[in-house]
Amino acid sequence: MQDHSTHVQCSECPIRHRAVCAKCESDELSRLEQIKYYRSFQAGQTIIWSGDRMDFVGSVVTGIATLTQTMEDGRRQMVGLLLPSDFVGRPGRSVAAYDVTATTDLVMCCFRKKPFEDMMAATPHIAQRLLEMTLDELDAAREWMLLLGRKTAREKIASLISIIARREAALHLRKPKGMLSVDLPLTREEMADYLGLTLETVSRQISALKKDGVIALEGNRHVQIPDIDRLLEEAGDDSDGGMLV
Amino acid sequence: MQDHSTHVQCSECPIRHRAVCAKCESDELSRLEQIKYYRSFQAGQTIIWSGDRMDFVGSVVTGIATLTQTMEDGRRQMVGLLLPSDFVGRPGRSVAAYDVTATTDLVMCCFRKKPFEDMMAATPHIAQRLLEMTLDELDAAREWMLLLGRKTAREKIASLISIIARREAALHLRKPKGMLSVDLPLTREEMADYLGLTLETVSRQISALKKDGVIALEGNRHVQIPDIDRLLEEAGDDSDGGMLV
DNA sequence: GATACTCTTTGACGCAGATCAAGTGACAGG
DNA sequence: CCTGTCACTTGATCTGCGTCAAAGAGTATC
User: Fold this and answer.
1) Rounded Cα–Cα distance for residues A238 and A142 (Å)
2) What is the pLDDT of residue A8?
3) Would you tell me which residues 70-129 of chain A have a C-beta closer than 8 angstroms to some C-beta of chain B?
């Protein structure tokens, strides 16, 4: 697979940045430009329900969305956390498999499915880029499975904070230096759904990490990390998880 | 994405069946034929360790393999179960991210990475087929996350049995009819690693399901399912999971 | 046929995290 | 200012599953 990532130009629309190479596919790019459109959602709004017809794919421009699965009796498990530039929707399927919810105000860049699929069939780079993104998501899902299946509540919380710190850092393209400081974009209940815990346990473990000096809280949603290595150790990860690359 | 699956011809090599369309890509197919080779492994043998250099991709021809992640203190979580025709290895990465282990005697059809990637770049169908397979895996991973995060031990066991039943049925292209009967290709410990439990809990819950008449055991590894709907209900799934399609 | 494996089952007990419940603080609206 | 709501914290208690331990069952080796 050729790497075109070095000469990608990013602009307002993340799909331009993530899914195609600007230099090599400029004509297809302009066709993508023609079929794209934007949708806005308010915090808390459900974008689409599992089982609904879904005739678009898209990527998050600003804000945060979640994918969740719900059992009949109401038990919920988050299975995806979408930050800006993340992709939603599956080419080749017309029914949503998960609830997609905006947890903050959110702007999404959408493409109607049919023309997007046509374009994908015509331009190999898009399919290849999408494959790469999907493989990354699969890796993230497998990391998540280890967390859900084998980590303690304390390790789960430490993992979540470091995952969010890592993703925010990657997003802003800045190296973490000095005292790291992270906004948690989720409520305690959403964190619980992410981690397979109850919200009470989430709250208790955050308090415990704070008492032990692993993190410091400023308000409820803002976390400061005096020692990232300490946090990663608490998370039970055997590597730095790409944090310091 | 065009659907060529209807006129695929399957033969000894699953990659032919799963990754490309025989009618449309016959010339590329013959090139795939030229670069493929087979490797055999014994039950229990580790195919590759996480962190090792991995210069091939491949797909399982016969037998069963697992992907597992291990924490420093030895806690293990299975993150992938590979049945015949499943694909291993990630184009664009040269280091294995998981331990890959043969749990039964196994034959794998391999392609050296470099020529496979060249071929993928040259033949769009391969990338598109691989994207589809990866998206399927991602869906399975997300179902698995719900299981790990929110299901009880009993539901986990019932889910595992129905998952294996479904996949075996799909493999043999036969509709389940009458008394379903399933071979569990995993030890109790491997099931525990799949489900995020201990082997003792797995054993206890299997005994409980047997006592309650949900399943019947014939030896340790062979399960009979008198009532598949009952089992699916025990699994906590809200659909039949494609069982009866 | 005895021994030594590995895989599995079953029992007794303890604990991490769920459940149930009460209380705090921030903020909006009347 | 009072009141309601929402997100969060903290406490008390319960329980599902993990841990530790022992023993049964099947298979291979000599």
Assistant:
1) 15
2) 34
3) 71-72, 75-77, 79-80, 90-92, 97-98, 117, 120-121, 124, 127-128
A22 contacts chain B (CB < 8 A): no
Beta-carbon-side half-sphere exposure of residue B47 (alpha carbons within 13 Å): 35
Nucleotides of C under 7 A from a protein CB: 7-12, 16-21
Q: Is there contact between A8 and strand D, defined as CB under 7 Å from any strand atom?
A: no
Determine which helix (DSSP H) or strand (DSSP E) holds A118, and give its type and residue range. Answer: helix A113-122
Rg of chain A taking only CA atoms, in angstroms: 19
Residues A137 and A170 in one domain: no
Q: Which two tokens stand for residue B9?
A: 């011809």
Domain final residue, candidates B103, B125, B143: B143
Cβ distance A145 to B142 less than 8 Å, yes or no, reads no
A124-150 vs B124-150: helix crossing angle, rounded to 10: 20
Whether B245 maps to a domain, the answer reads no
Chain B residues close to A2, C-beta within 8 Å = 121
Q: How confident is the model at residue B124 (pLDDT cuts 50, 70, 90)?
A: confident
Report how far residue B187's alpha carbon sits from residue A195's, in angstroms, rounded to the nearest whole number.
Answer: 28
pLDDT of the residue at A13: 45
Strand extents, DSSP E, chain A: 36-41, 46-48, 56-62, 65-70, 76-82, 87-88, 99-102, 106-112, 180-183, 216-218, 222-225
B54-95 pLDDT, tens per residue? 999 999 989 999 999 999 999 999 999 999 889 999 988 999
Joined together, the tokens standing for residue A103 give 């947890």
Residue A241's H or E segment, with its range, is none
- A26 token code pair: 């400029």
Q: Is the domain of B48 the same as that of B118?
A: yes
Burial letters B139-176, b for 16+ CB under 10 A, else e: bbbbbbbbbbbbbebbbbbbbbbbbbbbbbbeeeeeeb
DSSP states of A42-90: -TT-EEE-TTSB--EEEEEEES-EEEEEE-TTS-EEEEEEE-TT-EE--
What's the CATH code of the domain at A78?
A: 2.60.120.10
- The DSSP secondary-structure symbol of B179 reads S
For B16-25, letters b (16+ CB in 10 Å) and e give bbbbbbeeeb
Q: Residue B162: enclosing H or E segment and its boundaries?
A: helix B153-172
**Distance between A17 CA and the closest CA of chain B, angstroms:** 19
Does any domain span residue B172? yes
The verdict on A10 and A114 lying in the same domain is yes
